[in-house]
Design goal:
The protein has about 170 residues and is an alpha+beta fold. The strands form 2 sheets. Strands 6-5-4-1-7 form a 5-stranded antiparallel beta sheet. Strands 2-3 form a two-stranded antiparallel ribbon. About 20% of the residues are buried.
Length: about 170
Amino acid sequence: MKFRISVFATFCLSLLCIASAEDYEGLAGKGYRWVTVNGPYACTTEQKVRRITNRTDATELQMVEDIEAYYLIPGTIVRVVQSDPATGMSEIQLGGITRLLWTYTKFLGARPMQDTYGVIETPKNCDKSQSHGATGEPAKSRMQPPARGFTRANLDGIIDGTLPSQRTNR
């Protein structure tokens, strides 16, 4: 009985691997690529990509602070919108960023690779803000708004150990 279960499990896993490999090839055929570099190598224009790749620390800092350069993280999935073979660059759509960015095509790979969490990203399991609805509007982000700072009432509760609803007006 145990032998049958192990054979069946091996068979199911092999089918899963084959199905996912075909899925990745299909994604690459649809223009999806996986980032292979780590650094601020995506920019809003081709000229800025050239500038950031021939950078000094001061240039990098200034471009990141001015939101002219975006960090690419290995394993992140992107969709290639267009490629420019003459410059070796591609215009990409990156999840969570509404504007299109440029980067060198050599920084993108058609073969899937694991992200920093050990997961191979696909359009289905990555940040939903990358996918657009029928209206072309970006999907709403799953991020929560930042927590508010301490108020005087919260600080009083921390000091005396009570909740706001337990306090009497002073």
